[in-house]
Design a protein that fits this description.
heterodimer, A: about 325 residues, B: alpha/beta, Fumarate Reductase Iron-sulfur Protein, Chain B, domain 2, six-stranded mixed beta sheet, four-stranded antiparallel beta sheet, about 30% helix
Chain lengths: ~325, ~450
């Protein structure tokens, strides 16, 4: 008869799903963006991704050793952080800088808070913010995709360095805002390039097609909900449309804002990081609208051409407040005490 | 379906666990084992436990009342077989741990015979007075046989305030594995319908809906045919419901069928609804027409680790051990024995635990299945993915409540409405971090109850 009876709380069965599976799904969702980065920025793109992943994983392992905690590499979250950080970096960045960014991501962004699930800020964005603050020039030097040599006109393209660089579409539109010059002709030509990704920009953010493909996979796997991407993109589009309606000469058309810069990548892969986003659906809408609006405020009114990173970090900080604001009320209403 | 009802009604959220009903759904109800010793627990229901009405050494008749009750919310207990009272002692109880029980040594241990039920040709519930029905149900010791065990007589009592407008019959059986209600609907169809009509007569409800999940088309067909046969029952309708867990939770069922919500902390009578299970309905017919007390019930013995799963008619008080043995024993050395289904059932450590009026199933899960369950896998940190929020049928925030309990912040747990949790287990079922959310929430509820009663821990 029975020798060994197990007793535990119900339920006694569970869905075959694990944190590792969720993280691997995110990594799979990032594959198209990684592939496109590999196509346009060649071997250096893959080196950057590899460096970030290895350094993130190694840092997490060391942190766990120091804290005398069990090894947590098995959940693959460090790998995902590494990939996202790498894809948010300029393609020409030195590998040592990427390594520093990775260490900061994991140590300051994640392990200092207590590891996976406890961090307030998106670790990859913490690392990127550190790099932006520390190596400003390197972080704004944009290599031209290998497939084109001179896609853009003379704007800050410089033959003196060994690789060709040029301004990102957003940097160009920023200049357009300042000069109040014709934005339209240029942006409509460029719009196509931002969809395919054959344009200057961070590794993973250039190709709208690749990001949408990966995002669709995540949505299909139910790894992310549609709420945050929809809120980010919707609010950003609305803000861009308002600016465009106010002055169509100075401000580029709203679709251009959607496909260029980190907006799409951020909407699907960065703002949707569950740890640092609100729990409730209402909270997700608020969070997404916040990210989209802040990004556009920085793009249109601020000094930086791109504001996704700051918008995400800012909204991460208010996530606990959003969670408090959007408390779930039971289906049967508040109980009468 | 007409006007206010549509096919595939459902509540929102919930989960779709594997149904696993194929093991027993085609096995007709058969008599269970002959048992020498039965232990009738004195608390098999919600409310005050009953008082033993017999002494050690007394001889009892089959159907004799052996547990009396004084309280209003209580149900008496009866001896399922003739025999001698061996002892009054504490016996293992699936919920309470241990509970006073009357152990009866059967005079002549024979397998129970299936009850005969012939519906009188001129059966008309209108000939019974509501009080009579209620009285008969109370005397028969009927409690909700779907799991909660609320005394049925209290539910269906006539002239209650507020008046009852709707009687909901729960034939969902949304728990995986269990098929006892399904078999009852197929085999005892007329009896179930008679019980439903009697309950309707007692509580005075004008409308009756029988909610059945759409993975049981035969049961939907059988019940609809019985209603058509009985004629003049235009006020009884079968409502096919979407197959989803926990469709059979009474709050979810009311929401799915009537579109109404029971207030948090409230019970269905507050909105004029009575919910009874199909097995209870069958027992009502037995009690009113034949004066048979509730001494036997259909139990599904199932699970991948059972050699011969099936649906058995067994006396209440049969030890789980005897049932498992009767079904050919367990195919593995180690397993988990659950009273009830895998989502809400209670794992028992002591196989002498007797079957109660509310226990519709014994599910034995294999080592492999246990290995896939939460507690065996390493629990990782909550990544706030929100899956538990997405599935919670009561629209709670399980991770917040569970982590508040874990950190011993019971006030925070209360501020997130821990009391509104129905303990359905959906949150634990989906959690990718293997956190036993339901377990934490149940623990928190116990802590809070102790705190209120100022009981020592």
């Amino acid at each position: 008869m029975l020798k060994d009876i197990t007793v535990s709380f119900a339920p006694h069965i569970s869905q075959p799903l694990s944190t590792r599976r969720v993280m691997i799904d995110v990594a799979v969702g990032l594959l198209p963006a990684m592939a496109v980065a590999g196509i346009y920025f060649r071997i250096h793109a893959l080196l950057l991704i590899g460096t970030c992943v290895i350094w993130c994983a190694a840092t997490e392992w060391v942190c766990n050793q120091i804290r005398r905690k069990p090894n947590s590499l098995g959940d693959f979250s460090a790998v995902v952080t590494g990939i996202i950080l790498a894809l948010s970096l300029p393609p020409g960045l030195s590998l040592w800088a990427a390594a520093i960014g990775s260490v900061v991501s994991i140590v300051v962004g994640k392990m200092a808070f207590g590891g996976l699930g406890a961090n307030v800020f998106n670790p990859a964005m913490v690392g990127r913010a550190f790099l932006t603050a520390s190596f400003g020039v390197m972080m704004t030097t944009w290599t031209v995709p290998a497939s084109i040599d001179a896609g853009m006109p003379d704007l800050s393209s410089d033959d003196t360095v060994d690789t060709r660089t040029q301004a990102t579409p957003l940097a160009w539109s920023k200049t357009a805002i300042k000069d109040k010059n014709e934005a339209k002709t240029y942006s409509s030509r460029l719009l196509f390039s931002t969809v395919t990704g054959e344009v200057a920009g961070s590794l993973g953010e250039t190709s709208a097609i690749a990001i949408l493909l990966g995002g669709a996979y995540l949505l299909w796997r139910k790894t992310i909900g549609f709420h945050i991407p929809a809120a980010v993109l919707g609010s950003a589009f609305a803000a861009a449309a308002i600016a465009y309606l106010v002055n169509a000469d100075a401000y580029v058309q709203p679709f251009f804002h959607l496909t260029s810069g980190a907006l799409l990548f951020g909407a699907f892969f960065i703002a949707t990081d569950p740890v640092t986003a609100p729990l409730t659906r209402r909270g997700m809408w608020l969070f997404g609208i916040g990210v989209g609006t802040v990004t556009m405020v920085i793009r249109i009114l601020g000094e930086y051409p791109e504001g996704m990173m700051f918008a995400v970090l800012l909204m991460n900080a208010v996530t606990p407040l959003i969670d408090r604001l959007c408390k779930r009320i039971p289906a049967g209403g508040r109980p009468h005490a | 379906m007409t006007d206010d009802l549509k096919d595939g009604c459902t509540f929102s959220r919930g989960v779709h666990p594997p149904e696993s009903k194929h093991l027993t759904e085609d096995r007709p109800i058969e008599p269970g084992p002959a048992v020498g010793e039965l232990s009738i627990l004195l608390s098999q229901h919600i409310g005050a436990p009953c008082q033993a009405a017999v002494m050690k050494g007394d001889l009892v008749e089959a159907g004799q009342r052996i547990g009396e009750c004084q309280a209003f919310v209580c149900a008496p207990a009866h001896a399922p077989v003739a025999g001698k009272v061996k002892e009054l002692a504490l016996k293992p109880h699936p919920v309470l741990g241990r509970c006073q029980a009357i152990t009866i040594e059967a005079q002549d241990p024979t397998p129970p015979s299936l009850p005969s039920f012939d519906l009188p040709a001129d059966f008309d519930p209108a000939r019974y007075k509501p009080d009579e029905i209620c009285e008969a149900v109370r005397d028969a010791g009927l409690v909700g046989m779907g799991g909660a065990g609320f005394p049925t007589s209290v539910k269906i009592q006539p002239d209650a305030k507020p008046p009852k407008h709707t009687l909901l019959v729960n034939g969902c059986e949304c728990e995986p594995y269990i098929t006892c209600d399904y078999r009852i609907m197929l085999e005892w169809t007329d009896q179930v319908l008679a019980g439903i009509r009697l309950a309707q007569r007692a509580c005075g409800a004008s409308k009756v809906f029988i909610g059945i999940e759409d993975n049981k088309p035969k049961a939907i067909e059988a019940m609809s045919a019985a209603i058509a046969r009985a004629g003049s029952t235009g006020d009884i309708r079968v409502v096919p419901l979407q197959t989803k867990y926990p469709q059979g939770g009474e709050r979810q069922l009311i929401n799915a069928v009537l579109g109404r919500t029971v207030p948090t902390g409230g019970i269905p009578p507050m909105i004029g609804v009575v919910v009874i299970n199909v097995a209870t309905a069958a027992a009502i017919a037995d009690a009113v027409l034949y004066n048979r007390p509730l001494t036997h019930r259909v139990v599904t013995v199932t699970g991948e680790a059972i050699a011969r799963p099936g649906n058995y008619y067994v006396p209440i008080g049969t030890p789980v051990e005897a049932l498992i043995e009767f079904c050919g024993g367990v195919t593995e050395k180690s397993a988990k024995v659950v009273m009830g289904g895998p989502m809400m059932g209670l794992a028992i450590a002591d196989l002498t635990t007797p079957i109660t009026k509310t226990g519709g199933a014994v599910t034995v899960l294999t080592r492999h299945q246990i290995g896939q369950a939460k507690f065996e896998r390493r629990q990782t940190a909550c990544i706030r993915c929100g899956r538990c929020l997405e599935v919670c049928p009561e629209n709670l925030n399980p991770t917040r409540i569970a982590h508040a309990v874990k950190s011993n912040l019971l006030d925070v747990a209360e501020s997130h409405f821990i009391g509104a949790c129905i303990e359905c287990g959906c949150c634990s079922y989906v959690c990718p971090a293997n956190i036993e959310l339901t377990g934490y929430i149940k623990t928190g509820k116990i802590f809070l109850a102790r705190q209120r009663k100022k009981m020592p821990a």
